[in-house]
Amino acid sequence: MNGTSPAYDVVVLGAGPTGENLADRTRAAGLTTVIVENELLGGECSFWACEPSKALLRPVLARADARRVPGLRRAVEGPLDVPAVFEHRDAMAAHWQDADQVEWLDSVSVDLVRGHGRLNGPRQVVVDTPDGERVELTARHAVAVCTGTVTALPDLPGLADVRPWTNRQATAARQVPDRLAVVGGGVVAVEMATAFRALGSEVTMLVRGGLLGRMEPFAGEMVTDALREAGVDLRFGRSVTGVEREDGGDGPVRVTTDDGDTVVADEVLFATGRAPHTGDIGLETVGLTPGGWLPVDDSFRVPEVSEGWLYAVGDVNHRALMTHQGKYQARIAGAVIGARAKGEPLDDGTWGRHAPTADSAAVPQVVFTEPEVASVGPTAREAERAGLKVDVVDYDIGRIAGAVQYAEGYQGRARVIVDTGRRNVVGATFVGPGVQELLYSATVAVTSEVPVDRLWHAVPAFPTISEVWLRILETYRDSDGTAA
């Protein structure tokens, strides 16, 4: 294909999970599709985020569970086998090879151009390939930007010279640092602090606010308690003002905070948010600002670009920055592009086939700390700010028979948000060991808008942790008598 100027119905920039799913759906709609990627097919999630990070955390959580099971504690008293953990991580990251992804693209008849792709005017994309050639692509119907995000690093003098870790260096680490400083209090920060503390690092967290600030407050509080119990040094209300690697750039890192405190560590991980990966993809050629987010309408079109050919899907549109939401958006956007190409009307009403309703009403998330945190829909505060009148129902998961069976001394908490006007569940948060498996049932309840009265007929098996649903209904009924 090098040196040619082929035309396709759809050109996709970025072959992470979002781009791959969108290409699959447009191809399934009968549209010729090409995908452009400068790194590994599968993107951040497959190689530097979701897959390798959860591979690092799985032994940590399994050991924590085993330590609370009578008869099993002594078998897991020793340290983790770090080389085995890293070997497992490498396997889950496919040893940073994407041959399987290439085979999958071939199986769904999506073409691939490797190289740095940039917009070059309306419906035009140019790709500079690794061998120095230039490929010019034309899109008949749509160009979809699925380039995702990169770590947003603070503007600190000399930061590059310190060689800081981002999620990429943390999830691909070949050694466990004796001392690790973690800057930030979000998901990446707490997960990597959990993993590296269990692997043997002395971990210090420097947090401007609290942990997991976008979730229910009790989630961050419970994770804070667990990290402290594990030996993590948590320092709240701290902003980093300076970093320096000692011994001429080959020694430990000295981190200075705004209160004059210092932390010395072998490595420093900045988990301080994400920025759109749009700085060098030719946005200026279509009248957009390089480096910015790409706001979209509910069909994922970028409204600032005339004629409706440019779409932005996944993290880059800043709607819901999670892999599974990007894939969800891609499935919808692919169907939208296919329908428009055929001149078919869109089913874009609430929860319609072409409507991304879940982006605002039912975003699920799991934080793989110890304890785990799982949530879907708005928090109580968010629901109230949105103008909903809600009832908040809390329950101690540790009182459930299934939780007692799961682990001795089980500590957990559940919160369900009920819209009092429509009498259905709009949000839920669970904290505790193993709660990730409660999340899909909550997501179904939210997206299906199941009335609480109907939930009484969804009988949880005994003794499982899912019995918390019954106890929540009982608590709600007994508190105000509205649930029959």
TrEMBL record:
Keyword NAD: no
Domain Pyridine nucleotide-disulphide oxidoreductase dimerisation: 363-469
InterPro entries found in the cross-reference section: FAD/NAD-bd_sf, FAD/NAD-binding_dom, FAD/NAD-linked_Rdtase_dimer_sf, Pyr_nuc-diS_OxRdtase, Pyr_nucl-diS_OxRdtase_dimer
Keywords: FAD, Flavoprotein, Oxidoreductase
Cofactor dependence: FAD
FAD/NAD(P)-binding domain: residues covered: 8-325
Lineage: superkingdom: Bacteria
EC number(s) on file: 1.-.-.-
SUPFAM superfamilies the record matches: FAD/NAD(P)-binding domain, FAD/NAD-linked reductases, dimerisation (C-terminal) domain
Recorded GO MF terms: oxidoreductase activity
Group of enzyme by EC: oxidoreductase
Family: Belongs to the class-I pyridine nucleotide-disulfide oxidoreductase family.
Protein name (database record): NAD(P)/FAD-dependent oxidoreductase
